[in-house]
Each structure stands twice: as C-alpha cells, then as structure tokens.
Design brief:
Elements: H1 3-11, E1 29-34, H2 38-52, E2 55-60, H3 65-72, E3 80-84, H4 86-94, H5 104-109, E4 122-134, E5 158-159, H6 166-179, H7 181-193, H8 203-211, E6 217-221, H9 223-229, H10 236-242, E7 244-247, E8 268-275, H11 282-292, H12 295-304, E9 308-309, H13 318-322, H14 333-338, H15 340-349
Parallel strand pairs: 1-2, 1-3, 5-6
Antiparallel strand pairs: 3-8, 4-6, 4-7, 4-8, 4-9
The structure holds fe (iii) ion.
Length: 354
C-alpha cells in the first residue's frame, strides 16, 4: 500500500477523530489502531462488546501507524495499538507514544518474557522464525541451527527476504544477544555469501523459490506455513507449502545442551498491544487487552493467523500443532530490542541486500 493510500484509508474512517470525549453520549468505548485486518478482529471485538458493553472503534492500517500516532500526538484518538514484531513495539516506546500499565490479569496471562517489564507493551501471540527446507533436496539433520546456514555446504542454496526487514533484524539481534556482535557479523556475512539470489520478496516468496528449485532452504515466520497450506484463494501456495518442511532451529539435544548457545532455542517474536500515552479511555483499553489475553480470545486470536497463543495451556490450531513442539529462545525480547540498531548496522556493513 502506498503512503497516499494509507492516508486515504485512515481518512475514510468516519467519526473517529470527532468522537465526543470519554464515554460521552456514545457510552463506553475504546479506540483501537490495528495492523490486523477488520474481518479477523471483528468476531473477537464483538465478543468483547457483548461481554463488557464497551464498543470498539477500530482503525486498520497496514503501514504508517507510527507516523500517524506521532503526527496526532496528544490529540490522538487512539487508546490502544495492535502491531507485530518487537521492533515495531519498541519503536512506539522509543517515540514516547505509550504508557505503562499494571494489570494483575495481564501479568497472570502473559509470561514475563512476552511483556515489557514496566507494562509498556504486552505480547498477544508469538511466532517462530523457522527454517523452511525442501523435502527432498535437504537431508534430515542437514540443517538444525541458524549457524548451519553460514556453512559452505549451503553455498548458493539459501533464499531470504531483505536484511532490512524487521523480521530479519530481530533475528540478527537475537544472534547478537546470544553470541555477541562479532560472531553475529561473521554469521551475517557468511549467510549472505551462501544466498542463491539477492534478498527480495516476502517470506512466502522464498518458499515459492524452493518449490521452483531456485534454492533449498529459506528463513521465514512459522505462520506463513499455515497461510499457504490453507490458501483457497491462491491454491498454488498449497503446493509451495507442500514442498517444504519446517525446521525449528537451535533445539537442545545430545552434545548441544540447552545452556549452550547452539541449543538456545528458536527465535520467537510476537504480535502485541500497547496503551497509548494519549488514551482517553485507558481503563477500557486495559479491559480490551485483558480480554485478548484470556483463554477464549487467545485461542481464536492465535488460530486466525496460525500463531502461538502467549497464554500457556491454550490449545493450538491442529495444523500448528502438527509442526511439533520446540524450545523457544528464552532471551527477553527487550534484550533483543536493544541490539536492533547494531543488527541493522551489521546488515549494512555486510551489504546484505546487494
Ligand atoms: Fe508477517
């Protein structure tokens, strides 16, 4: 979507900027800015309204949310923001757009690793950055770690999207957290030298490239497997998904215990929410987040996008469950966020995209 379209889409949301002040004649409400599509959110938001009587006004924006919030400043009608990737949540924090929230419900539902220590953001779903491997050209056990992707045996066999994308920056930042900047730079350089083609496209198009024989392995987020495998609108994507298997990198095993950097677990990122500094309906925003972190919403919310619920014990979508269980890297995502700038600089230094 172009910037112009985003502005047009945002401008088309009638009434939001002219709402009367909190809970006026309109009754209890909360204003939500969401990167998640309305048709996905609606069943959940309707359930929330039925349960609490609080109406949800939602603005959907695929991009440009940070810019919009910055431009609106204190006058922003947004009470809460839903977005994905620790990078984007951290950008909201750094821009001073969110406020701390203390909620016993949120703290009980969401493990500490997946929320900001001061309540500046809360994870709602998680996703693993996995390795997609061709079912026939990659032998079982041939690739089991991110580090393997730097090995010369993968020369010309790897595809990935841009090194500048938030997903790859966060992965590299997690690598820095585990092994330091020097090792991370060496890894990024070696990974680049193994690429089958210049970084391009999105995560799904890497799996397509595997299906088409351009490469054997790719980096991608786990939920895309579910989206491709069930895509009735673009059935060719089912064939892409059928060509690959999901490998959860860096699992502990004999000779690679959990305490070892190689057994640190798969990099996991999240989608999450924050309450804005400008929130005029703060309590209602918190109630919405509490609802989204509860058993009922967690199941639906995670299933819609083939993600993992943050709340322990919530059942997985059967397809997601079929990929198997795995250990997630336990490094706190605020720690990962600290290294994002360093990671972006490494991507530049190794000219990852060129
Ligand atoms: Fe994505």
């Amino acid at each position: 979507m172009t910037r112009k379209t985003v502005v047009a889409v945002l401008a088309a949301v009638v009434g939001l900027t002219t709402l009367p002040s909190p809970a006026g004649a309109e009754g209890a409400h909360v204003n939500l800015y969401s990167y998640r599509q309305p048709f996905l959110m609606k069943p959940l938001l309707d359930a929330f309204t039925r349960k609490t009587g609080i109406k949800v006004n939602m603005v959907y924006a695929k991009t440009g949310m940070l810019e919009r919030l910055k431009a609106e400043g204190r006058n922003s009608p947004a009470d809460t923001v839903l977005t994905a990737d620790i990078g984007r949540l951290t950008d909201l924090v750094r821009a001073g757009l969110v406020q701390p929230v203390v909620s016993a419900v949120l703290n009980a539902n969401i493990p500490p690793q997946y929320r900001h220590p001061d309540g500046l953001w809360f994870g709602l779903t998680t996703r693993a950055r996995v390795i997609y491997a061709d079912k026939t050209r990659v032998k079982p056990g041939e690739v089991t770690t991110y580090e393997d992707l730097a090995d010369p045996r993968f020369k010309g066999r790897i595809c990935t999207r841009s090194g500048k994308h938030a997903y790859n920056i966060s992965l590299l930042a997690s690598f820095i957290a585990a092994k330091g900047e020097k090792a991370a730079e060496a890894w990024a350089r070696a990974l680049k030298s193994n690429l089958a083609r210049r970084p391009q496209g999105n995560d799904r198009s890497q799996v397509r490239a595997i299906k088409e024989g351009e490469c054997d392995v790719a980096l991608g987020n786990s939920y895309y497997m579910g989206k491709m495998a069930t895509n009735d609108k673009k059935p060719e994507q089912k064939a892409w998904a059928a060509a690959v298997t999901i490998i959860f990198p860096n699992q502990p095993r004999a000779g690679r215990p959990g305490g070892d950097a190689l057994g640190r677990g798969t990099h996991v990122n999240l989608s999450g929410a924050a309450v804005t500094k400008s929130a005029k309906n703060r309590d209602n925003a918190i109630r919405l987040l509490e609802f989204l972190s509860g058993d009922f919403a967690q199941r639906i919310y995670a299933e819609q996008n083939f993600e993992y619920p943050v709340k322990p014990g919530v059942p997985l979508h059967p397809l997601v469950a079929s990929w198997g269980t795995f250990k997630a890297d336990t490094v706190h995502l605020t720690e990962v966020a600290k290294y994002r700038t360093a990671a972006a600089k490494i991507m530049d230094r190794v000219a990852f995209d060129h």
